[in-house]
Amino acid sequence: MSDVTKVTIARGDGIGPEIMDATLEILEAAGAALEYEEIQIGESVYRRGILNGMEPAAWDSLRRTRVFLKAPITTPQGGGYKSLNVTIRGALGLYANIRPCVSYHPFVNTKHPQMDVVIVRENEEDLYAGIEYRQTQDVTQAVKLISRPGSEKIIRYAFEYARANHRRKVTAFVKDNIMKISDGLFHRVFDEIAAEYPEIEHETMIIDIGAARLADTPEQFDVIVTLNLYGDIISDIAAQITGSVGLAGSSNIGDQCAMFEAIHGSAPNIAGKGIANPSGLILASVMMLVHVGQAEAAERIHNAWLRMIEDGIHTVDIFKRGISKARVGTRDFAANLIDRLGERPVTLTPASYEVGAKATFAGIQLKTRNDAKKRLVGCDIFIDHTGGDGGAMAARVLPLVQDGLKLSVISNRGQKVWPDGAPETFCIDHWRLRVMGEGNAEVSQNAIAALIVRMADAGFDIVQTARLYTFDGAPGFSLAQGQ
Ligand code: NAD
User: Domains plus CATH for the chain?
Assistant: First the structure.
């Protein structure tokens, strides 16, 4: 018997309590050595005015146990409520979201019988950093943050996962044909790290064609690693095309803590009816057992679950006449699974977890940073202004550009409008003035600051500035379209 591991659990909202009860019964029957601390999260907590859906005492439990089995919650719309998941991931540093998406053909109806894909999604950065602005009457902005350490951690996690789970290939999904600097960094780090895992095949795909292929021929993929937003979207697609979103579990892994949950939501439309499929949370609990080093119990539950699916004991969401044998509710699903503990699937591939296998790779070592020579070479100054064109804007600002600076380009929504703008370009109330050093010389912060003061004095409504740097001579900024 393994040492007892303390785990924090939350029953959540909607179908949460039903599927959590079923999962806990199964864990108990399988001999999992777990002790639980229960916390309240979700709707009832939000209603008490706690905007992130979790009470301070709940955080203490999570910091104590460092392992969280979480049922889905209902996120109230609007009203300043924050997503509990985004809060937990950020606060506990859960940088990796792992979603295995597997078909159970011919026992669960799917168009993709051979599918067995694991999505490894970056969980902390990208547009989910939640840095957004309204800058003018007409313009809003969301900041997409991609860092080298953030990229390195998730990519290395994907390769370590592939190695530990005997996977043959890791595919990165990016959009670096457009976002050359941010997605380009992720791509470069992917290539660097892939070189350290020569036994694992690697490839990179542009997210649009990658997502199309994933929906069409998922069997060509094995492990996919990608940025937060792309991962959010493609992991739901991947789970859905296996046959049901009700089937998949997921883990959120950090250096210190880990959270395990079903990928589906609280399904309020079927809550209290006793018909919810508990499989997502059951399979999440299997991932949790592997994480805490209880591989034997994980294997027993997973194999009994596979046997249930083969035996056609199905909940309503996957029930199909001609394939399924019995339609059961949540409680009977658990009872039938418990009856099968110790059995293995006959047709489907049995689950096998190596005892002592590391599922978390805690404390991924970052590579030593090679500091590049950073030089300040200019500044983009964003102006709120309605009407006119690039020429008129240039005429106003040119007399103010002094101290070795020159106005290099004006753009509107990224499209060059001066010099030589096209009269057809549609302009909105958000202009970017790019100022560089004469002859591309290095410039000083003071020269830029003085220009900003002169522009403010002249009545320009400056909504944002961004310094332009080169790193070892390479520009750390994109060119305007048409520049
Ligand atoms: P949902 O996943 O709850 O439901 C989508 C559809 O799938 C519904 O028809 C539902 O009945 C069905 N379904 C989902 N899980 C099922 C299961 N286990 N068995 C059988 N059928 C199942 O998505 P939604 O309706 O968009 O969201 C409902 C609520 O859940 C929202 O408040 C949302 O914010 C929240 N949500 C929470 C989480 C989470 O806590 N991790 C994740 C997603 C959505």
Answer: 1-94+244-355 (3.40.718.10), 111-241 (3.40.718.10), 374-475 (3.30.70.1570)
Q: What is the pLDDT of residue 483?
A: 74
Residues touching ligand 1 (Cβ under 6 Å) are 15, 72-75, 85, 245-246, 261, 264-270, 276-277, 280, 317
Concatenate the DSSP letters of all residues of 181-221 into one string: THHHHHHHHHHHHHTT-TTSEEEEEEHHHHHHHHHH-GGG-
Catalytic residues: 128, 175, 208, 232
Strand partners, 349: none
Residue count (the chain): 483
* Residue located nearest, by CA, to atom 11 of ligand 1: 267
The segments of the chain whose pLDDT lies below 70 read: 1-2, 355-363
φ and ψ of 87, to 5 deg? -65, -50
User: Contact 231/122 with Cβ under 8 angstroms?
Assistant: yes
Nearest CA to ligand 1 atom 30: 265
Would you state the structure tokens that stand for residue 349, as one six-digit string? 């591939």
The alpha carbon of 438 and the centre of ligand 1 are apart by a number of angstroms equal to 58
The predicted structure's pLDDT at residue 243: 81
Q: ∠ at Cα 300 (298, 305), nearest 5°?
A: 95
Residue 347 DSSP one-character state: S
Helix (H) or strand (E) holding 409: strand 405-412
What share of residues in the chain are helix, strand, coil (percent, to 5)? Answer: 35, 25, 40
How far is 391 from 393, CA to CA, in rounded Å? 5
The structure's pTM equals: 0.91
How far apart (Å, rounded) are the C-alpha atoms in residues 199 and 168? 8
